[in-house]
């Protein structure tokens, strides 16, 4: 495959950072009781969502993070987090807005991560992996900071799967000759639609069956089972 020439436009990267900041702040603002955050805590979560995906993407690519080479990334993330705090008081159905923004954000970071990986000559499968990590990285950092169960590690509504579908579309489309910019835009749409439909209709992957380690050990012989003596 011919190496695509692609550079993420600054305005597009900042748009993803801004939307992530708004979504993260709105998410954090919705917590009540013991997990209620002050303005600084909400701002930190918003900034982490806005900048986390780009940081993870560039680290995996072995590049100096773009978010640390231009002052507008942090300014945009902080401003967007403030906007998210203000908007949270205007929405009576906050969860719907969060889900839609979340779907768009993971689509954008997934597409940007995969496209940039391809532009650096990364093979298709690792490029998809980098894109998915960039898409879900911000939410993983958010959950860690807030002491929440990591969303993508539990039964849910196709979070990483939606990102993977969009990223896979991009590498296939580029491989068959579609311009990478168009492929990235369509990839964002694919991820967004899958994520929203999954949440709307409560679609998720099958839950794992409960497996007892002692039973597995006995069946496979991997671990010696000591029988109690009479």
Automatic annotation (TrEMBL):
It is found in: Cell membrane. InterPro entries: Gly_transporter (IPR005115). The chain crosses the membrane at residues 6-27, 39-60, 72-91, 98-119, 125-145, 157-176, 182-205. Pfam families: Gly_transporter. The keyword Membrane applies. The keyword Cell membrane applies. Residues 10-87, 100-173 form the Glycine transporter domain. Keywords: Cell membrane, Membrane, Transmembrane, Transmembrane helix. Its main location: membrane. It is a multi-pass membrane protein. Belongs to the UPF0126 family. PANTHER family: INNER MEMBRANE PROTEIN, UPF0126 INNER MEMBRANE PROTEIN YADS-RELATED. This is Glycine transporter domain-containing protein. It comes from Microbacterium algeriense. The lineage of its organism: Bacteria, Bacillati, Actinomycetota, Actinomycetes, Micrococcales.
